[in-house]
Amino acid sequence: MEFKQDWNYRVLVVDDQREIHQDFEEMLTPSLTGSSTDDLAEAFAPEVDESFLPKFQLLHARGGSEAYDIVKAAIEMDDPIAVAYIDIRMPPGMDGIETTRRIRTVDPNIEIVLMSAYTDKSLGDIVREMELLHKLLYIRKPFAREEIQQITLSLAEKWNVESELGDKHRQLGVSNQRLESVLDSTGDAIAMFDITGCLQFANRGYEDMFELTTDALKQMSPEELGEHTKQYFQEPGRFEETETLLLADPEKMFEEVAEVRRPERKMLYRFTAPVHDIQQNVIGRIMVFRDISKEIEINQMKVEVSRLRTELEMKYAFDKIVGKSKEIRAVYALMQQAIESNITVLIQGESGTGKELVARAIHFNSPRKAGPFIDVNCAAIPEPLIESELFGHERGAFTGATGQRIGKFESADGGTIFLDEIADMQPLVQAKLLRVLQEREIQRVGGTGNIPIDVRVIAATNKDLEAAVKTGEFREDLFYRIAGFPIPIPALKKRREDIPLLGHHFLQEYTKAADKSISGFSTGALQLLMSHDWPGNVRELENTIERAVLLETSDVLQVDNPALSGLYSTSKGDTPDGGSESMRSYLATSTEILSLEEIEKQALVHALEVTDNNITKAAEALGVNRVTIHRKLKKYKLLEKNS
Fold it and tell me: What's phi and psi for 402, nearest 5 deg?
């Protein structure tokens, strides 16, 4: 016979006589067996093959208090005793009955065998009086070796089997609890019915849906249950027909979309299928109601998000960065190269030149366009908060950190982070940013673990970073890390030929927004826009056009529009008191609408006349180079006149 290695064969012997303990050692230790205390008993006892006895572990106590302490310590150490032999009479101190009663208070599962050499009172009466019959046997001294071996082996195996069954029962209980928790947490309403339609199980979702407990639902007959549940549906007749069909054909699987009207109105996906036993006989059916109202809403939101994303991609397409000058075409070329790689980009330009627009165009035309675009204005975040803003923080990292915060870098994972005004970043944060760019991982403030990120970095500044490096205001190593692919954005005064295009672009945009019908610019208004230096660059031009559209009363934006009045004092060739009277008179009286090419041609002629045909001075006045002037003169066939 084989014994399980992990079974419990711990045996406690409680007796005040040393000889009894020696007898148990001889009887339960295979290597010491061979003698018997009772040859006559041995002759009639069942034979036991002692070579197959398990390895019993014997513990000994000479009195009740000592036995109690041993059993209690075994329980506390999670190493319980399987069988205890306890003598009835153990003077002085506790007798066997009291010892048994006290042991049971700490270990109710121990198998106990009471031993006695006396017959003055029936032990059965004693046991019944003490209510100790549970897991209790009685033997009289003297006893045979084989008797003790058989009893001990049987009781130890009984203890182990019951222990395993108890463990499995507890595991089954835990599994059932977990299953119920899972079913309760799914958000679905789930129920199981027997073949007659009586409810067998319902999760919390089903109870909430039909506003009754499982016990109450189980007490209903199939007819009562059907009457109760159908009233919750928008089409109770249809529900009743389905139930009748399912009762008539238990093997049938069924699914549909139904609308319930209480306790709140929602759309449900209803699914029911047969339940089989191990012989594949149908024993009932399971029914699931799933709320798909949110899924319908989510699908609608996905369509809307897709539409908005398409609009966003169109908004930041290259053709939305308006301009055709040589300078802006150079920017286009650099942007196209940046799109095709994952390199860190540094956009440099004056305020208002459209650095963020370039950054967004790069992102929304790159393979990362499906990911987030997170913009951070480094100059707008207070110094104590910028590290938390960029990298996040853990709860309790600093005073006021009441919860975990996800930083901008984590939020941008899979997409692009745009660090605007990076020159204003504090030195400590510069060092941490350098590490992020090198290691491609972040650490939240107050955290200990490193979090890997997949983020493309685009930085921007309106300052001279090389000069900031020389003065020690910006880290040199960080500069070389972010300046691997610079994109300089020219000031608007450096690309004046783009002003008419930008002006018409903003005019169309804000005319539509204001629901006005302004078709274009007067010649004077356009020339005024062309002659202004635009220190605020494209942003200033856009704001000027927006105000002008709101203030314009005619169908053409005129030079006397109040929004343009502030441009005279900073326009080329004007004096502080109002500028050239002839120019003012011309601009104020002109109402003819000219094409852009005609305006460009007139601007060339006017510039050459003012500079006495000095192409270098004319190019400087118009904000273009000599090559552009020659090309334009050739285009408009003006070379002969200016040769």
Answer: -85, -10
